[in-house]
Amino acid sequence: MKILVTGLSMAYLSGQPLYCYELCRELKKQGHEVTMMSELHIPMGQRADRDGHKLVENLRAEGIECIEWNRDKAKGYDLILMSEPQSRILFDSCGDTTVFNIVHSEYDCECPIEYHKQIKAYICIRPSIAAHIITQHNISPDLVKVIYNGVDRLRFDTKICIKSENKKAYKIVAPCTLDKLREKFLNYLIDSASPERHVVLVGMDCGASLHSSPYVEIKPDTFDIQLEMADADEIAGILLGRVNLEAWSMGIRSTIFDPETLEHYTVEPPEDFDKKHNIKNVVEQILNQYSNL
Fold it and tell me: Residue 50: which CATH number?
């Protein structure tokens, strides 16, 4: 099939770009012709991920076309997988192509696209998002499908983990954007650091006002986050995000925080983790939705 994937940006190492990155790569592996349409460069004056450019560079190296937003280039596809509300600009030009809207969070910035006759499914990456768009955005339950976040099980593998017998402190790694949304969560981790409990924050500085501690290290974003996670005792993230899933894939303890209440819990991966979260299986589930229309 000829498939167009759209998303607000492919210049940052955050949830939506990384989802689209893995989605495009796996669609290509499964034999489809794939194009990624997005903002490929960081707008003038905005903060830049150090490694964000690697998403587009890697996709192009694998033979996946990456293009900037362009209504005229939305024609001729069998399926469009739309992320982010901006994708709605393509409806006037993409003919009668089948559209799936992928919804990445409950936050307003990632709200579902208003219903359009070409949207045949709203794919939500966790059940709480599905419930949210039904109750808060009046999306018909008949159109809503939960298909979980996908993880590259070859890249995030237990084989790369390093367990040192001489480690002097318990190590918590929190890979995430250092922004206002996560500020309370990040400061909670910082304030909990001690000689026995070291914290490493890895991500782009997006304006969070962070406390300081001699037992906390703040590192810039990195594409190769699996290497930062390799010797961690625990990975911390919010709302069952991508980093928690990557931790499970690597066999690392994963703690999930509510960014507002700071309620948190540590759970083991479900027995059907690979079935739900292996990017290979996620892509197959999405394409099955298309086949069953």
Answer: 3.40.50.2000
Gap between the Cα atoms of 33 and 116, Å rounded = 25
128 in the same domain as 15 = yes
1 token code pair: 């099939």
Are 180 and 242 within one domain? yes
* Number of domains observed in the structure of the chain: 2
Sites in the chain below the pLDDT cut of 50? none
Residues 21 and 143 in one domain: yes
Separation between Cα atoms, residue 264 and residue 238, nearest integer Å: 9
Same structural domain for residues 107 and 237?
A: no
Q: Identify whether residues 15 and 141 lie together within a single domain.
A: yes
CA dihedral of 28, 30, 31, 33, whole degrees rounded to 10: -40
Long-range contacts (CB closer than 8 Å, 24 or more residues apart) made by 89-98: 90/6, 91/116, 91/118, 94/4, 94/118, 97/4, 98/290, 98/293
Identify whether residues 58 and 130 lie together within a single domain: yes
Query: Which residue range forms the structural domain that includes residue 39?
Result: 2-150+278-291
Q: What torsion do the CA atoms of 225, 230, 275, 270 make, to the nearest 10 degrees?
A: -120
What distance in Å separates the CA atoms of residue 229 and residue 249, rounded to the nearest whole number?
Answer: 11
pLDDT, residue 108, reads 84
Claim to verify: residue 122 and residue 17 sit in the same structural domain: yes
pLDDT digits (tens, 9 = 90+) for 82-102: 999 999 999 999 999 999 999
Q: How many beta carbons lie within 10 A of that of residue 102, not counting itself?
A: 26
**Token pair in block for residue 137:** 């955005």
- How do residues 230-268 score in pLDDT, each as one tens digit? 999 999 999 888 999 999 999 999 999 999 999 999 988
Residue-wise over 183-210: b if at least 16 C-beta within 10 A, else e?
bbbbbbbbeebeeebbbbbbbbebebeb
pTM more than 0.85: yes
